[in-house]
Write a structure and sequence with these properties.
367 residues, Peroxisomal Thiolase, Chain A, domain 1, 11 helices, 13 strands, fatty acid biosynthesis
């Protein structure tokens, strides 16, 4: 029996921080309004592409595992904000790493993408087709935000996280998975005109529609993450009492609290960093995993539950038994290109563009 064991991990957060007070300079909002509804205080805005964020996180994960990029058999890149359609973001990371022996592809399961990636990598390793797989979750969500819409502009940030999975005959690493999708309700959390459905030669104003039905998303997120977690536990022959630590998708503090209550878990057993980074979509779980290890909150042999919910509407959970090592074998000196400006500087043109486009749309309606 082959088990997919996490042996390396890494994250990348761009340096520019956008605070709630920054948002209040151009939106009708304030720190109290945002924190009371989401638990968020700040988020990061990237000055580089999604694949660049992913590359830095991947270098950290490879160093932590103590392997060479040439040993990697597969690179599975979860993102809904790839640099471009062709080539894939995964192929860009492969080229930067020099991982010439790796098969690569992007997968889009929105915020559940990293959990989907773990499940896919686990299948390849269990079948014996691959021995070492790099799984990445990385996003530059700030690119398609409408900075005039308070309900969504305050929620999201940019970042990346990655892990190395290696084949092991010991019963550790991924014990079980459950992934799924409620496609019939996918419209409630969607960006419908971000692909080839978008008309090429009509008036393109730069705005992307972001459908976000908050109350319905909240109900479904709590329900589906809870159900997926229960199934993953059952597959692993475990109960909630066996779980030592929970890493949920960092979408909203209230969703995290409801999931913890459903699992009967104390606050000490649940990772929360949504206040620092907002919702980084597929990157939230691997970033939170890295920080939990850095903070010493995951111990050797711990049973760790990962759960996520995302656009589409995807959902899933993974049950892990952590291995013996909780510290990196080495660290990477690869860093993002320096940036000395502010987050507001980065999005200033986007703010003005969104404001102008919104006014143009409203004037067309009035006419």
């Amino acid at each position: 029996m082959h088990y997919a064991n996490i042996t390396g991990w890494g994250k990348c957060l761009p340096p520019a921080t956008l605070t709630n007070n920054d948002l209040s300079t151009f939106l009708d909002t304030n720190d109290e309004w945002i924190q009371s509804r989401t638990g968020m205080q700040e988020r990061r805005i990237s000055h580089v592409s999604t694949s660049e964020l992913a590359y830095v996180a991947a270098c950290q994960a490879i160093a932590a595992a103590g392997i060479d990029a040439s040993e990697i058999d597969g690179i599975f890149f979860a993102t809904c904000t790839a640099d471009c359609t062709l080539p894939s973001a995964a192929s860009k990371v492969q080229a930067k790493l020099g991982a010439t022996n790796a098969a690569v592809f992007d997968m889009n399961a929105a915020c559940t993408g990293f959990v989907y990636g773990l499940s896919t990598a686990n299948a390849f390793i269990q079948s014996g087709q691959m021995d070492k797989v790099l799984v990445i979750g990385a996003e530059r969500i700030s690119y398609f935000l409408d900075w005039t819409e308070r309900g969504t502009a305050v929620l999201f940030g940019d970042g990346a996280g990655a892990v190395i999975l290696e084949s092991s005959t010991e019963k550790q690493g991924i014990l079980s998975n459950k992934i799924g999708c409620d496609g019939d309700a996918g419209h409630i959390l969607s960006v419908p005109n971000f692909g080839t459905d978008r008309a090429r030669f009509q008036n393109i104003d730069g705005l992307f529609d972001f459908n976000f039905e908050g109350k319905e998303i909240f109900k479904r997120a709590v329900t589906r993450m809870g159900e997926a977690s229960a199934i993953a536990l059952e597959k692993a022959n475990m109960t909630p009492e066996d779980v030592d630590f929970i890493i949920p998708h960092q979408a909203n503090l209230r969703i995290i609290d409801f999931l913890a209550k459903r699992m009967g878990a104390s606050k000490e057993k649940v990772m929360v960093n949504v206040h620092k980074y907002g919702n980084t979509s597929s990157a939230t779980v691997p970033i939170a995993l890295c920080e939990a290890l850095e903070e010493g909150r995951i111990k050797a042999g711990d049973n760790v539950l990962l759960a996520a919910f995302g656009g589409g509407l995807t959902w899933g959970a993974t049950m892990l038994k952590w291995g013996e090592r909780t510290t990196p074998i080495a660290t990477s000196d690869v860093e993002l290109p320096a940036y000395n400006g502010t987050a507001l500087d980065l999005i200033q043109d986007a703010i003005k563009g969104c404001q102008d486009a919104k006014l143009a749309r409203e004037s067309q309606v009035d006419a």
